[in-house]
Amino acid sequence: MPINPDAIGAEGEPGEFSWTSKDSLLYALGVGAGVTDPTGFELGFTTENTNGIEQQALPTQVVVMGAGAGRGPDYGDFNPVMLVHGEQHIELHQPLTPAGTAVSTTKVVDIIDKTKAAIVMLENQVTDTAGNPWWSARMGLFIRGEGGWGREREKTPPANVAPDREPDQVVSYETRTDQALLYRLNGDRNPLHSDPSFAEAAGFPKPILHGLCTYGFTGRALLHAMCDSDPTRFTAMGGRFSSPVMPGETLDVKIWDDGDGTAIFETAVGDRAVFSNGGFSYS
To answer: Is the model's pLDDT at 81 over the cut of 90?
Structure first.
């Protein structure tokens, strides 16, 4: 069956999942973390046995955890080749630990008709095993060819528009030419990110970087620039994927600080925005 617009509000069954210290180390390396500063401030994310340093987890790691736990809600059927990850938002209610066990429940929060496509908004609510809220993750799936059934959302002005001035900070990270091969070990084995022939068939000159890898690089920049590298101060982050990134390209994370615990950001490759309408909250 095609996308089912009546599935709005449908909720899947809760599912328990776990992650290990090794999972957290692999994620950190996959989004470029390493010894990138004379103080070695990223050793807490990339090692578990450095003298005097306790292992920590990058907050954006939550995007690769919990989505497949339990039975997800049924919102119809579609050709997965037509799916593009359009948006990603996270909010942490307590800091992420390097290892742990949690429970995730997925809900369909909205389905929008865009005439030639549909947007499915899914949200994962994650708690610890005692039922206390841990984090929520909301994603927007843009599915080509699934629109035209007549429920278009009322248009609203875009959120988190970058101010018409120079950013307060710019953090630049160069991705590796093999970055996607490393990041895919976190679970997304889509050949679009590894197989040259598959990427060529999809219209790309070579495999592209995972959007969520760009998201993780951006989260690292915000963590270090706005939270003094303290993940307990990282509260929420979200925005829209606007252009693919090729492994080896340099990401420039432009930050406009509102000075009240919030910031607007945009990630670009040169003059091309790759993650836009970014909103960030910190304590």
So the answer is: no
